[in-house]
Amino acid sequence: PLVSPAEMFKKAYSGGYAVGAFNVNNMEIIQGIMSAGEEERAPLILQVSAGARKYAGQDYIIKLMEAAVARTDLPVALHLDHGQDYTICKEVIEAGFTSVMIDGSHLPYEENIKVTKAVVECAHDKGVWVEGELGVLAGVEDEVRAEKTIYTDPDQAVEFVQRTGCDSLAIAIGTSHGAYKFKQGSNPTLDFERLEKIGKLLPGYPIVLHGASSVPQEFVDMANKYGGKIGSAVGVPEELLRKAASMAVCKINIDTDIRLAMTAIIRKHFAEKPEDFDPRSYLKPAREAVKQMVQRKMRNVLGCSGKA
Ligand code: G3H
Ligand code: 13P
Ligand code: ZN
After folding, report:
1. Is the pLDDT of residue 142 over 70?
2. So where does dihydroxyacetone phosphate get bound (predicted)?
């Protein structure tokens, strides 16, 4: 059934695991995620970015997700990823999403508070969950680019949550969006001390981790072997994410790894079967690759298998 993330996060917090929030753009991605969830018996969050909404059209993407929800007995939340303003949040709330992110992280602090608070008022009227963000992730996010991480200040996080009333908070502890998170040969780390401090100051409060793809080397290699040029891509090691999931982090966002898996498999298919031109023949293995990647996340990173 379609659910609010409230119950999911409560269980995840006390159970020491996280729920996966997977970005969806088309039917095959949604189907791949759903079959992974079914096989693992895991709760799911399907999330739609502004880019996904534009690509598919809000009506199409909602109908696809509704079809997925109607077919399953798993708890599924429908979430807006990186809502950039009040208007987009209001639109998807009216369309039936059960959760929205208002991302005011690039705004001055007081403006972030103001817009987040406004979205909370509108969302809570309809029983919709609100994720806010404080701190800035390095890398590209919907055309906004930050060179460096601005780590979330724990005391400010408490004030932000109190003043806005947001239900969960995305924080910056060293992850970033996309495939190029850390330099090759460097030792990727996350600021666990900061996470621990935030967890202590906000007991029981669900924290969200964006930019949490691991960029598995075998998929980079596969894509590159078959003509790709994905350079020195390095993600967040799986064991660091697993540790975060055992702490206050209840939602982990994954997009890049799904993109990588689909692209690598499609490239391989084209290289091995150049005579093929039926889209089903390469979208089917791509859908299977999404499923396997999501299952891998559930087992190695989230710890949510068997929790639904
Ligand atoms: O945080 C960004 C997500 O990976 C969504 O990416 O804006 O290209 O759809 P997108
Ligand atoms: P990745 O780019 O690491 O997959 O992060 C996705 C994300 O945070 C979506 O909001
Ligand atoms: Zn994100």
Report:
1. no
2. 178, 211-213, 253-256
**Nearest protein CA to atom 5 of ligand 1, as residue:** 49
> Looking at residue 233, what is its pLDDT?
85
276 phi, psi to nearest 5 deg = -75, 135
Q: Residues 87-103: what's their mean pLDDT?
A: 98
Name the residue of 142, 259, 262 whose CB sits within 8 Å of the most ligand 1 atoms, as the mutation to test its pocket.
Answer: 142
Task: Point out the annotated binding site for Zn(2+).
Answer: 82, 103, 133, 177, 210
Round to whole Å and give the CA distance between 259 and 218: 14
The answer for 132, left when phi > 0, alpha when psi is -120 to 50, beta otherwise, is beta
Can you tell me which atom of ligand 2 is nearest the CA of 212? 3
Q: What is the SS3 assignment for 3?
A: coil
- Pocket mutation for ligand 1, best pick of 22, 49, 177 (most atoms within 8 Å of C-beta): 49
Query: Could you tell me which of 68, 18, 84 has the C-alpha nearest to residue 307?
Result: 18
Q: What is the number of structural domains in the chain?
A: 1
Report yes or no on 304 lying in a domain. no
Ligand that lies nearest to the alpha carbon of residue 50, given by its number in the listed order: 1
Mean pLDDT of 26-48: 98
Alpha-carbon dihedral sign for residues 109, 115, 120, 123: negative
Please tell me the predicted confidence (pLDDT) of residue 141. Answer: 67
**What letter does residue 290 receive in the DSSP assignment?**
H
pLDDT at 140 over 90: no
User: Which ligand 2 atom is nearest residue 215's CA?
Assistant: 3
Distance of CA 81 from the midpoint of ligand 3 (Å): 7
**Residues marked as catalytic:** 81
Q: Write down the residue that tokens 């969830």 correspond to.
A: 37
- Look at residue 306 and tell me if it is in a domain: no
- Residue 265's domain comprises 5-299
